[in-house]
Amino acid sequence: MALEELKGLIPDYAKDLKLNLSSLARETLLNEQQLYGTMLACALASSNKTVIRHVQQEVAGKLSDEAQNAAKAAASLMAMNNIYYRFVHLASHADYKTMPAKLRMNVINNPGIDKLDFELFSLAVSAINGCGMCIDSHDKVLRKGGLSAEAVQAAVRIASVLHAVARTLDGEEALA
C-alpha cells in the first residue's frame, strides 16, 4: 500500500502526521471518488514529487480515468484561480471586484465527473492555497448540493495532512 510506504518516509518527530495519514484512508464521510480524488488533487497541489508519486499509486485502480483527470484539473485550475481571487479579495481597490476575470474555467461546468465531487476537490486545493474567496464559493455550492459540513471538513483534513507531509519531506530534503 503506497500510503504505508509514504508513512515510512515521515521522520519520527512528525509521528502525528503518520497517525493522521493512516486515518485518512479510513475516512467514512466521503465516498471512494471523493476520498481518493481529494487525495490526488491535494497531492498535486503540494508540489512534492514523493507525495504525488505515492498518492498516485494509492489511487490507481480506485479512481476512474475521468476522476483522476478531474482531480488533476481541479489542482491545475485552482493553482490559477486561487492566486487571482486571493488578489481580488486582498487588494484595497474595490475596482478589481467588479472587473471580469477573463480567465478560462470551462472545466468547472463540465469536469467529467459529478460536479459536487469536483467542487470538493477544488475546495480542498483552495484550502491549501489559502484562498478564502474560493473556499467560500466552493463551500456554498457543496452545501447547496447537500454535502454536510462534516464531509467538507473531512476533505480539508485530507488537504491539511497531505500538505503537512509534503512540507515535512521538503524540509528533510533541504536539511540532507
Automatic annotation (TrEMBL):
Molecular functions per Gene Ontology: disulfide oxidoreductase activity; hydroperoxide reductase activity; peroxiredoxin activity
Reaction(s) the record says it catalyses: N(6)-[(R)-dihydrolipoyl]-L-lysyl-[lipoyl-carrier protein] + a hydroperoxide = N(6)-[(R)-lipoyl]-L-lysyl-[lipoyl-carrier protein] + an alcohol + H2O
Record-linked InterPro entries: AhpD (IPR004674), AhpD-like (IPR029032), AhpD_core (IPR004675), CMD-like (IPR003779)
Record key words, sorted: Antioxidant, Disulfide bond, Oxidoreductase, Peroxidase, Redox-active center
Disulfide bonds, paired cysteine numbers: 131-134
Domain Carboxymuconolactone decarboxylase-like, first and last residues per copy: 95-173
Active-site residues, record numbering mapped to chain: 131 (proton donor), 134 (cysteine sulfenic acid (-soh) intermediate)
Biological processes per GO annotation: cell redox homeostasis; response to oxidative stress
Top-level lineage group: Bacteria
EC numbers for this chain: 1.11.1.28
Task of the protein: Antioxidant protein with alkyl hydroperoxidase activity. Required for the reduction of the AhpC active site cysteine residues and for the regeneration of the AhpC enzyme activity.
Matching PANTHER family: ALKYL HYDROPEROXIDE REDUCTASE AHPD (PTHR33930:SF7)
Family: Belongs to the AhpD family.
Protein name: Alkyl hydroperoxide reductase AhpD
Organism of origin: Iodidimonas gelatinilytica
